[in-house]
Every structure is written in C-alpha cells, then in structure tokens.
C-alpha cells in the first residue's frame, strides 16, 4: 500500500488568536505550531497502521515554507517513511490542493489521506479538491478505514447517522474522529526522523480563487449572570423571557 | 445573479440546513436581480416547502439514490450551467462539505466555506466566515466569476416569503457510481440531530459516570434538545464519539448550549463558541467556562439538574 498523507501546520489548540498588519494577517508571534490534529491523530496514524499490517510506504506531504519542517519531522517521528515539502506559500485551499494533485498525479499512490478539516481555516476543502483534480473517488469524514486488495471499506458520518461503503482504490479519504488513536512519538522515532528523507520540490504556481481581505475577533462576552442554585426556576424564567431561547 | 442551492434530504425530508441555504440563496438572487433554483436528489415529501423561501425552480436528479460525491458534483455542475447560476450555495454539513470542493475545483469557482452572513455584492464579492475554530472571523473575497458558498447551519434566519415552485425531473450525465453504499445506520434516540439542533444539553466529567446521564437525557427531552458531551467523556466511552463537541470533535452553534460539569477548556470552547446563549452549571466557581457563559449556576449538578428538569416541565405545562 503506497499512501500519501497531507499534513497541515496549525496553531496549537490552546493558542490565543490575534492579527497584525491592520488585521490582514494572522500574528504568528509566540504561537506554538502543531501538526493539524485531524491530519495527525486520524489520517497519519491510520495510514501507519495499514502499512504495518500490509507493508508499503507512508509519505507525508505539506505545502509551505521552511517553517513547516519542524512539524514534518514530528510526523516522520510518529512513523512516516519520507516527507515531501512543496516550497510555496499558498493563500487559499485551491492552491494547496492544486500543488498536491500536481505532485501526486503520476506517483502511483493507492490512497491520498487528509484530516477532515484544519483547525485554523476549518474549510474541509482540500481533500475534495484533490479528488476532483486527480479524477479519483472521494470519501469524506470517514471514521473507519479498512483496505483489502484494491478495495477500501469505510464508515462515514452522514446527516442523522453513518454509512458503510466501499470504494475502489486509488481514492482520496478525509479522516474524522474514531479512525485511529493519537500516537506519541518515542525517542527512537525522534532520532530516526532526523535521517529520513525530506524532499523539497518547487511550486507548480497554481492560481488562487479566493483572498482573505481581513480578520476580526468576536466581540468580548459580557459578564456571566449567576443564578442561586436554590433558584433554578429563575434560570428557566430568564431563558424564556430575557434570552428568548426556550 | 442566478443562484443554485443544493438541498440534501435525510429520511424522506429536506433537511433544515437546506431550507436555510435556500432562503439565503433566494435572498441573494432577489437582491441582485436573479432567480434561485434548487437541486435535490433522493426522496423528500416536503419539497413544496422550499417554495416558501423564494425558490422558483426545483430540479430533481434522477438515478442517484446515495450520496455519491462525484456523481452529485457532476449533477450540480450541469444544473448550474442549465440555470446559468453564478453562485452555488450548499449547507456546510457532511454532504455540502463532500460535494462543494469537488464542484469548486472542477468549475474553478472560488469557494468560501462556513459562511456566517450574507455576502456584500456591491463591488467585490466578500463573505464573512468562521476561522480558527470560531475564535475569529474572516472576510473572504471570491475572485472568480462563478462562486460557491457553504453556509454554516444556524447562522442566518430563514425568511418565509411564500410562492410556488416548479419541480422538474433532471437527468444529467453523471457517469458511473464512485462509491458503493452497503449499509446505512441511523442514530438512535429521539432523532434530534446534534449538528442542526437549536437547543443542546451537554455534560462532562463532572457527572462522574455514564450511569448518571439519565438526568441529562431528561432535561434534553423536556427541552426538545440534542445531547452532547466533552472530549474526555467520549474518549473513555461514557458517550459515543458522535456526541463529542469541541476542537477535535464537531463544532455546533445552537441557540442555547447548556454545559453541565464541563470545565470549559479552550479546546471545548472552540466547538461551542458560536452558540447564541451559553448556560454553565459547575461546582467550581473558577471553572473557565463561566467566563464564556451568559448564565451560570455554581452548584452541584446532581441537585441542580433535576430541579431544572422540573422547572422546564412547569414552563412547558404553562405554555400548553
């Protein structure tokens, strides 16, 4: 099984989000970056499990500058065999997908995997765009994934439940919670990651379809209105008459 | 501009998010001198209701019974061409997230995911969207002639304006199936879907064990709410994964979110910070969740929640 896992860099889940340059850019000062949790915990770990069971290779791919390399080394430490960094600074999802599709097109991957979304832009766009650009079937929000021969069997979340389905490989899969459990890299993995190949390839210079104009933070929340635990009826009264939500 | 809205159905009904998308799309069409059409598939006995929101044409795709992203993307593209739609609107739900990016890449139509407001259409086409898991908003400009928006559920209110719609059978060339659906599992419970619920009752480790969820379910039942939980509770298996809301679970934006025995870690808040009203019940007055709450009770859930169930029952009885 030859698996490509797309890895995005994201601010640590506890990061305070601020902006700079007149609110036109994310302020990265003091922000700790991590592997996007959906890419790492679910897509990468499940890819490794499949490789461990059936043999093959897991390649990770990122689209970004040299600042991506620490999180790529982390993914190698968890167990990926090699890494590819497309040297570009994309500003929208279509550029990311175009870069990955144009790299992966002739490499013979059986599976292309991503997390279901990134925790910074939350778009759930890149995997579907890669599938469209490569002409491959796509299963999104998969919570299980098994591979037998040239067929994958998955369960995916849907409105009001789940569906069990099968798809012919090669295919593009986006992974959601349930697919695998987080793995903490051990010292051997961290040492080994230093000497694993991390290839830098040039951008294919795709065009962008959208642009961020600016950002804003939500208005500050007012103080909480505390209700005496002996006066629970008052809470229901406030929710009904003041907040008008029940 | 002409607008095409993709309307998903579940269990024989057009889903709530699709009505929101239809209302949203129809309003944009009306404000820009165009008309709004819907594309749907499968069986739904409430298609007529779409007309109430300003939809004039409904195209029903024949021959696709399962959510096959590739086939539906082809159908959407064909319908957009047929209706000369410049804008395609989806709900930002499982189905929309599957199909919209495929259509975007195929048509080279710029896509804004998770829109929370109407676009500005005078001059540049700019849409407000949720970013950083609800910790911030972004204004995104779509730079292409054809445009795609996925609308975050419960972000805009539906506007019933009345009207009639014409339903037409639509049979575009969609190729062979790309996926084979073997089994559909419907979630148990009262059928209130967490992702589109207006009211949500959620609980965490403060409840001490899965055997204590009865009162949470009672409260949800009285309110007509969906139930949810925090990550630790899903991880230890007290509750199913699909109830986990937060940064790594699902994000929701109900009108009311009641959090019982959840401290309010930043990762949990990222999944619920779009809620309009937040109520926190916690024994610890220092729980960070109180800073994000509108109403709070510092008290023992095992005493407070049963009283709350009774108080809601009284309100419902008075309303009946």
Query: What is the overall number of helices of chain A?
Result: 6
Structural class by SSE content of chain B:
alpha/beta
Number of strands of chain B: 17
The spatial strand order of the largest sheet of chain B comes to 7-10-6-1-4-5-11
Structural class of chain A, by secondary structure, is alpha/beta
- The H-and-E topology of chain B, N to C, reads as EEEHEEHEHEEEEEEEHEHEHEEH
**Helix fraction of chain A by DSSP (H/I, runs of at least 4):** 25-40%
Shape of chain A: globular
- Sequence of secondary-structure elements of chain A: EEEEEHEHEHEHEEEEHEEEH
Largest sheet of chain A: 9 strands, mixed
**Low-pLDDT stretches of chain A:** none
Radius of gyration of chain A: 21 Å
The number of E-state strands of chain A comes to 15
Walkthrough of the structure:
The complex is a heterodimer of chains A (246) and B (320). Chain A is of the alpha/beta class. Chain A has 6 helices and 15 strands. Chain A has helices at residues 37-54, 69-78, 93-104, 126-134, 187-195, 232-242, and strands at residues 2-6, 9-11, 19-20, 25-26, 33-35, 57-63, 82-87, 111-115, 138-148, 151-158, 161-168, 171-175, 198-202, 210-216, 225-226. In chain A, helix 2 (69-78) links the parallel strand 6 (57-63) and strand 7 (82-87). In chain A, helix 2 packs across helix 5 (187-195) and helix 3 crosses helix 4. The mean pLDDT of chain A is 96. Helix content of chain B is 27%, strand content 27%. In chain B, the strands form 4 sheets. Chain B has a 7-stranded parallel β-sheet with strand order 7-10-6-1-4-5-11, sandwiched between helices. In chain B, strands 14-13-15-16-17 form a 5-stranded parallel β-sheet. In chain B, helix 2 packs across helix 3 and helix 4 (214-223) packs parallel to helix 7 (301-319). The longest helix of chain B has 19 residues, at 301-319. Chain B is elongated. The relative contact order of chain B is 0.12. Classes of the chains: A alpha/beta (246), B alpha/beta (320). At the A-B interface, helix 1, helix 3, helix 4, strand 9 and strand 10 of A face helix 2, helix 3, strand 7, strand 8 and strand 9 of B. Strand 15 (225-226) of chain A pairs parallel with strand 17 (295-298) of chain B.
């Amino acid at each position: 099984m030859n698996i490509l896992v797309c890895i995005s860099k994201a601010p640590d889940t506890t990061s305070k989000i601020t902006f700079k340059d007149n609110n036109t850019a994310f302020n990265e000062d003091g922000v700790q970056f991590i592997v996007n949790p959906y890419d790492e915990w679910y897509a990468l770990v499940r890819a490794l499990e499949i490789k461990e069971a059936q043999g093959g290779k897991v390649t990770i791919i990122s689209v970004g500058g040299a600042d991506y390399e620490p999180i790529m080394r982390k993914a190698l430490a968890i167990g990926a065999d090699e890494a590819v960094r497309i040297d570009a600074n994309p500003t929208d999802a279509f550029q990311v997908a175009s870069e990955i599709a144009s790299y992966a097109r002739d490499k013979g991957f059986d599976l292309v995997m991503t997390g279901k979304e990134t925790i910074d832009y939350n778009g759930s766009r890149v995997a579907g765009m890669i599938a469209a650009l490569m002409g491959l079937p796509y299963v999104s929000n998969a919570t299980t994934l098994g591979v037998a021969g040239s067929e994958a069997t998955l369960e995916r979340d849907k409105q009001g439940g789940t569906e069990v389905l099968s798809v012919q490989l090669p295919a593009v899969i986006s992974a959601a919670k349930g697919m695998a459990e987080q793995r903490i890299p051990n010292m051997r993995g961290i040492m080994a990651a230093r000497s694993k190949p991390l290839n830098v390839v040039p951008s294919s210079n795709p065009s962008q379809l959208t642009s961020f104009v600016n950002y804003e933070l939500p208005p500050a929340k007012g103080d909480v209105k505390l209700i005496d635990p002996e006066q629970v009826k008052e809470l229901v009264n406030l929710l009904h008459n003041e907040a008008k939500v029940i | 501009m002409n607008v095409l809205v993709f309307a998903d159905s579940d269990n024989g009904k057009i889903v709530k998010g699709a009505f929101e998308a239809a209302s949203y799309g129809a309003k944009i069409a009306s404000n820009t001198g165009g008309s709004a059409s819907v594309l749907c598939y499968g069986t739904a006995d409430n298609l007529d209701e779409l007309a109430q929101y300003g939809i004039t044409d409904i195209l029903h795709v024949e021959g696709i019974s399962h959510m096959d992203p590739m086939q539906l993307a082809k159908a959407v593209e064909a319908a957009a061409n047929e209706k000369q739609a410049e804008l395609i609107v989806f709900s930002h739900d499982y189905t929309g997230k599957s199909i919209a990016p495929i259509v975007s890449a195929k048509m080279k139509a710029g896509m804004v995911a998770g829109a929370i407001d109407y676009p500005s259409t005078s001059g540049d086409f700019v849409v407000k969207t949720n970013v950083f898991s609800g910790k911030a908003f972004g204004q995104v400009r779509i730079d292409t002639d054809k445009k795609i928006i996925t609308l975050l559920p419960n972000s805009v209110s539906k506007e019933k304006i009345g009207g009639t719609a014409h339903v037409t059978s639509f049979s575009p060339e969609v190729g062979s199936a790309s996926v084979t659906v073997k089994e559909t599992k419907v979630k148990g419970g009262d059928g209130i879907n967490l992702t589109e619920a207006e009211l949500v009752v959620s609980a965490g480790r403060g409840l001490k064990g899965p055997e204590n969820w009865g009162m949470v379910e009672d409260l949800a039942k009285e309110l007509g709410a969906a139930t949810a939980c925090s990550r630790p509770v899903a991880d230890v298996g007290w509750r199913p994964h699909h109830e986990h809301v937060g940064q790594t679970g699902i994000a929701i934006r109900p009108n009311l979110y009641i959090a019982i025995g959840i401290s309010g870690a930043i990762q949990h808040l990222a999944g619920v910070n779009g809620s309009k009203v937040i109520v926190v019940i916690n024994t610890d007055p220092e729980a960070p969740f109180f800073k994000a709450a509108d109403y709070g009770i510092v008290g023992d859930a095992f005493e407070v929640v049963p009283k709350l169930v009774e108080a809601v029952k009284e309100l419902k009885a008075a309303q009946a």
